[in-house]
Write a structure and sequence with these properties.
Helices cover about 35% and strands about 20% of the residues. It is of the alpha+beta class. Among the domains are: about 15-105, MutS, DNA mismatch repair protein, domain I (3-Layer(aba) Sandwich); about 200-260, 5' to 3' exonuclease, C-terminal subdomain (DNA polymerase, domain 1); about 270-380, Dna Ligase, domain 1 (2-Layer Sandwich), CATH 3.30.1490.100. A hairpin with a 6-residue loop joins β3 (about 45) and β4 (about 55). It binds a DNA duplex through α3, α8, β12 and β14.
Amino acid sequence: MPAPRNVIAHLDMDAFYASVELLRYPELRGRAVVIGGGPAHRPVERVDPVTHALTRSFATLAGYAGRGVITTATYEARALGVHSAMGMMKAAALAPDAVVLPVDFDAYRHHSRLFKAAVREIAPRIEDRGIDEIYIDLSEVPAPAGIRVLAQSIKDAVRSATGLGCSIGLAANKLLAKIASDLDKPDGLTVIGDGDLERRIWPLPARRINGIGPKSAARLAEMQIRTIGELAHAGRDALVARFGKAQGEWMHDAAHGRDTREVVTHSEPKSISRETTFDRDLSATRDRDALSQIFTGLCNGVGEDLLRKGYAGRTIGVKLRYDNFVTVTRDRTIAMPTQDAAVIRRAAGSCLKRVALERRIRLLGVRVGALIPADAVATFSNTPARNDATPSLFDTEPAPDP
DNA sequence: TCTGGGGTCCTAGGACCC
DNA sequence: TCTGGGGTCCTAGGACCC
């Protein structure tokens, strides 16, 4: 009888958005390409009237003006120092000749479904981690030729289903599998076995642990902790003293490669939101009409999303970001879950009345949380809500403006 | 030339309840 | 007329991830 094994894979698509774009524009292969910004930078196509040959002209970063960040860069662009989340204008200074393409989420979602379906054919237990990543539980999947061969067959299946490459990390848990998938990108296949922790994981920066971000990394650096190995030797008590019990103990365990999280094959959404950053910062007084229109549009958008996805929610909130990048949120819980844009707008409008509107605003968002499936609303048992501002049927007051 | 949009989870204080 | 205490809900902010 074979010993029970725990085999977890983390699969990460290589430069996903950019790679999907290269499927349609193969002439860009080998060039620095970045994805980001709005539809204004769509390539212009021209058919020669005589030869009927199709030529496309692409926008470059040099001609880019406006707000926005890079969502994905090809490896050629990354070699020039451009990376995701970088402002477009900063990227333009580094790589003026890089081609810019607008984001096309519909296309990425389509290819996302394709690659996940291909993986599911081989290994049905997968956990969604967004559009371009999954964890795969391979513990029960037969691997007569070994797990490396099994992982390679998954990579092959993804490529034949989509034409796209991916990197896979294999380990005994999600934490190590995630680190492993990043070790040999692109087109990687990395196995982290029981004896590999000290040699392959400990030299890495602490930041590579999923859950240690820039703030935690900076605080660790203050303690002279920069690598995962240094974190492992830091001592539980010192970490608990600095970060609190939960986070300190978690960090210590993570540095020792310990992680007991399951692969979660199904989850329900907790919130649905829409937000937008304006082309220029808006004033609540001078741009009142524009702001009001945007606000209504966001509420309608969230309402549509709730309807389409089949959810209703009772915590309605707004988010504002001022010109100085300070962000505030306000929310309010109503008695009955809703998916009605007018109800959302009324509740969100009342939240808006509780924020300062002196500074100029660069972002406005609307969120609905505490979701339940829409078909469960009829049987929703209403725990008497405090602070309840649900408008009744008799409430004829017009919806407040922002 | 600053810094998107969609999410999740955690913390912490106050209200409220038993 | 100093000092309960545990549990849940609500709200605001923050860290982090893709």
